[in-house]
Amino acid sequence: GETQERADFSMFLALMHVRTRAMRRMAAEMISHNTQIRNYAYGTDEKAFEALIRRAEKNGARHLTAEEKERLRRDFIDPSGYIIEVARERTLAVLGAAVKLSPILFRMKWSIAQPASGFFITSDNPLVRQVSPETRHPIYGDHGFLNKTAEVIFPLSPQRLLMMSCNKNARAFGILERHYVDNVNRLLASQSDRYLYAHIRHKRLQQLAAEFKNSRPMLTT
Predict the structure, then answer these.
(1) Under 8 Å CB-to-CB from 129, ≥6 apart: which residues?
(2) Tens of pLDDT, residues 115-160
(3) Kind plus residue range of the DSSP H or E element containing 109
(4) Mean pLDDT throughout 56-83?
(5) Cys-Cys with 136: which of 142, 147, 156, 200 at CB 3.0–4.6 Å?
(6) In this model, does residue 221 exceed pLDDT 50?
(7) Considering the entire predicted model, what is its pTM?
(8) Sequence-separated (6 or more) residues with CB below 8 Å from residue 31
(9) Is 49 within 8 Å of 42 (Cβ atoms)?
C-alpha cells in the first residue's frame, strides 16, 4: 500500500545519499581521522606505545631497534611526512547507514514542489540537508538528520522537487518562484562533489559549475 511505497522510496533516498562518491570520500576521511587520533594517543603515552609494540611483535611483527621505535613514535605524533590511504572496500561500510537513515526520512513531512519558471538541476550528491545555523554546535555538530530543524531536498526531475522537513507543521510547497528555484539550484551545486546535471545545456549550469568548482561537502568531526 501507500505506507510500503513510502518506506521503499525512503530506503531509495537513503541509498542515494550514502552511495555517493562524496559520502564514501567522507567515510575515508573519518577512518583516517580516527587512525590519526589513535596513533597520536599511542605516541604520547609511553606505556601504551610499548604495549602496542609488544603486541605487534607477539603477532609476528619484526623486532624494532630502540632507534626505530623512537622514529615510529615520533611519526605517530606527527604524521605530516605520510599520506594515509584507505582501501575503497572499507568505505563501503557507509552503505549500512541507509538502514538508520531511511526511517528518519520516512517520518518527515513530504511535499512536492514545481518551478513557476526555470528548472531544477541535480548533481552527483543529490540528497541535500540543511539546518538552522543556530543549532550547530562547535564540538557536537548539528546532529545530522535528527536535527529538529532539518530540511531535505531531492530533485526528482527538472520540474519536480521533493522537499522533506522534520517540522510536521512546515507548510507544504507547491509552486516555487524563480528566485527560490535559483536558491535550490545553488544549494544543490554547493553540495555537489564533482558533477552537475541538467536536461539541457544551459549557461546558468555552467555558471554554477564554475562558481562551486572547488567546493565539495565536508565531514564535520
Answers:
(1) 144, 145, 150, 151, 152
(2) 999 999 999 999 999 999 888 877 777 788 888 999 999 999 999 9
(3) strand 109-115
(4) 90
(5) 142
(6) no
(7) 0.74
(8) 86, 90, 91
(9) yes
